[in-house]
Amino acid sequence: MNSIERFKATVERKPVDRPACWLGDPTPDAVPALCDFYGVKDIKELKRVCGDDFYAVEIPYKSPTCSAIFAAFDWYMNGSNVDTEHRTLTADGCFTHCEDLEDVKAVNFPWPDPELYIDPEECRRLVEEAPDDKVVMGMLWACHFQDVCASFGMQTCLMNMVAEPEMVHYVDDKIVEFYLKALKIFLEATKGKVHAILIGDDVGSQRGLMISPALISEFVIPGAKKLIDLAHSYGVKVVYHSCGSIVEAIPLLIEAGVDVIHPIQALAAGMDPANLKAKFEGKISFCGGVDTQDLLPHGTPEMVADKVKELRGYFPTGLIISPSHEGLQPDVPPRNIKALFDEANKIYE
């Protein structure tokens, strides 16, 4: 099987020759050591030689206030470049002091138009760089729940979900509208060449959900479903990301049409493979499972290989083997990444 065939079989939980594997998206600080270890010059070469089945493409976005689509909204309205170093969900946003919907509208927030800042030709160029046999995955993120939290400040937003839901829905609808338009631009520009998109919102803590299943159903799922339905209309699979313990939310994501849950955060409550297999086998596929909190930074290559064997035992299909956080940190020894891929790439007799 090639990578694309393996991915499609994994999503459909059909037999595979070996698990599909994803390195994730290592942080810039983690890349040099990995490249040195593998003897390659950049991340593109690294992903070609390590056994990665995926080729991730960040949807290109460039506006006066940011250079990444996941930071497209200037919630402070000060013209700052809201980059990955300065984004936060907890600082007061521009809607913090709003008491009702009229107050929100009176802020006159400059809602960005993705058509102005996404170049379809650049989308095509980035996708065409992918090797022919790799799974091309567009990284939209589309974290509308996290965005709406940032727009009010997280504490204020969570209170407004209960006390003034109309305000939250209004802002969320605007955000979802932005991501829907951005996704359509990307999928139209790359029609037939993209196999998956990654979207999601962090709704889990180490011990459980940050908000109730009822609030997830009201404020997270409707926007996610619109994005999922749009992706599916182009024949594109959806990988849905949420860190933490999200066991109680998985049935809602299945109902919304998610194809793959990412990640299995290995040490979060209830996210162990035995529990996920018992509850959801045959209903959804997963991605992740190799712990990045303790095992990958501190374990031995033999321990990493044993974990991959264990995961393969629980999920002979329906699991993309991957670190349990896509943003691999520089504290992970490259030898442990090699151990992960060496074991995952074995074809068992």
Overview of the molecule:
The chain has helices spanning 3-11, 31-38, 43-49, 101-106, 114-117, 120-128, 144-152, 154-163, 165-189, 213-219, 221-233, 250-256, 273-280, 295-298, 301-314, 334-344; strands at 54-58, 135-141, 196-200, 237-241, 260-264, 285-290, 319-323. The protein is of the alpha/beta class. Strands 1-2-3-4-5-6-7 form a 7-stranded parallel beta sheet. The longest helix is centred in the middle third of the chain and has 25 residues, at 165-189. The two termini are 15 Å apart.
Helix content: 40-55%
What is the ordering of alpha helices and beta strands? HHHEHHHEHHHEHHEHEHEHHEH
Task: Note the gap between the termini.
Answer: 15 Å
Report the structural category. Answer: alpha/beta
> What's the shape?
globular
Low-confidence stretches: none
Spatial strand sequence of the major β-sheet: 1-2-3-4-5-6-7
The main β sheet shows up as: 7 strands, parallel
The tally of beta strands, per DSSP, is 7
Query: Oligomeric status of the shown chains?
Result: single chain
Radius of gyration: 20 Å
Number of helices: 16
Task: Give the tags.
single chain, 349 residues, alpha/beta, 7-stranded parallel beta sheet, 43% helix
Structure at a glance:
The protein contains 16 helices and seven strands. The chain has helices at 3-11, 31-38, 43-49, 101-106, 114-117, 120-128, 144-152, 154-163, 165-189, 213-219, 221-233, 250-256, 273-280, 295-298, 301-314, 334-344; strands spanning 54-58, 135-141, 196-200, 237-241, 260-264, 285-290, 319-323.
